[in-house]
Specification:
By secondary structure, the protein is mostly helical. It has one domain. Helix 4 crosses helix 5. The chain starts with a helix and ends with a helix. The N terminus is likely disordered.
Amino acid sequence: MSPKSNGYSDHSADRAAINRANAQKSTGPRTAAGKQRSSLNALRHGLTGQTVVLPTEDHSAYQRHSQSFLSEYGPTGATETQLVQALTDTSWRMNRAAAVETNLFSLGMTEMEGRALANDPDAEAALAMALTFRENARAFSQISIYSQRLARQFQTTLAQLRQIQEERRSRESHQLFDAAQLLQMHKEDGLPYNPAEDGFVFSSDEIETYIHRTERLEDASERAYAAS
């Protein structure tokens, strides 16, 4: 083997040794900033990739918050789920803005204790609050603008979700009625019925439940009319 090829081999071996040494030294982020970025990566939302829960916030509380919205609105499909998630995250940020405002007041009043002197503790607290607001007016204004923007975003998203869900439920109601008609026809003819063959996503049990509920409602209406 030529000296040139030996030199290349030695160089490759040295580089491999260096890479192994570096890999052993790498144990993750060491600085505070690096550790914070690493913690944020673990808290990014799966749908959007955005950081929703800050390292100082309770992630389990966010999960409970999210579940409460899912339970209330019961989304069906990707679009409804996305809108409910947007409501969840927007309301979480609204709560955070309110907390920041409260904390800013608390911090400011603590800092103003020595400047707001009066003969009455309540008067001193009121003066400290006034001084806090005056010296942090810009910060409070920014919080207010941010909160208003989030509130408008929440209402817009909620309106979209309600419209989509109303349209879906109306569509499902018509489809259930049609499926019930077909199921009853097959029963009268003594034939089995598979809703999927007509493009319905409902099971036979769901259609039977719809028929039973409709019959009970009709019976209740007739009784109410007879009693009037």
